[in-house]
């Protein structure tokens, strides 16, 4: 009966469904079950590579035994580590996309609308799905399989979850995407597997080998990633521009592999195309590592080094020497950065637009004067927690950076109404201002700001001694402003 009714073979069912099982897998409960799951995935991968036209594969929850199709032919199910495993069924009856979805109670017109949607509309709908959801849709029916693997939907892979088998998911996905062009995927440009603790160097190496056109890679919070994997990616993916390794505590440097350096022509040098680099919470990063990064990534425009506590002023000097195009820089919570480091940063001059030095306790008015004097096009400054900044520093900043749009001087107890007055009379384009825990700020300073900065959109005065009348004055003059306060009498 299966042959007469066009029932797909078992190997085809495995090929079209293994990807979804691997991508949407959860944490294995026992070691024995984990081994079974890996074996199933590898068998499915091998069978899938011989397919030219996929067969319909449908998912059935393992908790419902005895599931049968509409023609009375029984189906077998298997439960591996609590995952949903695709089962091979006879072709679905007309107007049904899934044997467990009962559309009989719905109006006939609604059923017809779903079936008559053109492929272009389905591609548009599928474009809003995550990678694991897209793989599950590929298991519904033959048509959805073909639509789900449309090349336009696979320019990006986004996976998340601490229990996800990221290495296996990347291996299966890249193998499927390389089906038409063996051993290389020219479509994939973005991969985001943030928070996947099971991602290892092996998974990144597979990705680097198969996806030479990769432009964006995000592996934030993947603690098992090391320098070797990052070296492989930047060496085998020459077009990589965006790299996020925040929270990868084992990453201490970014450089080309020795083999890649030897093969490069003298004209190309040893340069990497990265423009955006986020190394937040890379605690082991030191000045020497930053020196190597700066020497190889000379095209950097955005660099974030938050909470890299081992960095000093010497590391910032290397940045200025090699990365003269920096527009955004964050060294917040780098406690060893001082006024000497800001003197080096000031050498970026008008190119610098964004600077965060939050909680750099060694920074004083001297460092602020350096930045204000030479970086006249600065738009954003976060100096929260820099207790050495006074009204003199704010005044100098306001007079030399008149285009400032966002300023955070919270927890700067030496800043008072005098500094705010100078700020309001020079920075008319100010949109965001944070004065949280500024003990010397009163309602008078806020009123001066509100009377001159009409475009103010956010004001933080939490833990400040300001009256309700002053807050109401701000609300009347800056109607679009969101006020964050701690005064229970103001609403």
UniProtKB/TrEMBL annotation:
CC per GO annotation: centrosome; SCF ubiquitin ligase complex
Span list, region Disordered: 1-82
SUPFAM superfamilies, alphabetized: F-box domain, RNI-like
First-listed, main subcellular location of the protein, grouped into a coarse class: cytoplasm
Superkingdom as given in the UniProt entry: Eukaryota
SMART domains: FBOX, LRR_CC
Domain F-box per the UniProt entry, residue ranges: 111-157
Pathway in which this enzyme or protein is active: Protein modification; protein ubiquitination
Pfam families attached to this UniProt entry: DUF7885, F-box-like
Composition skew (Low complexity), residue ranges: 9-26
Cellular compartment(s): Cytoplasm, Cytoskeleton, Microtubule organizing center, Centrosome
UniProt keyword terms in alphabetical order: Cell cycle, Cell division, Cytoplasm, Cytoskeleton, Leucine-rich repeat, Mitosis, Repeat, Ubl conjugation pathway
Record GO biological process: cell division; G2/M transition of mitotic cell cycle; protein polyubiquitination; SCF-dependent proteasomal ubiquitin-dependent protein catabolic process
Polar residues bias: start-end ranges: 27-56
Similarity remark: Belongs to the FBXL7 family.
Function according to Swiss-Prot or TrEMBL: Substrate recognition component of a SCF (SKP1-CUL1-F-box protein) E3 ubiquitin-protein ligase complex. During mitosis, it mediates the ubiquitination and subsequent proteasomal degradation of AURKA, causing mitotic arrest. It also regulates mitochondrial function by mediating the ubiquitination and proteasomal degradation of the apoptosis inhibitor BIRC5.
Protein name: F-box/LRR-repeat protein 7
Organism listed in the record: Canis lupus familiaris
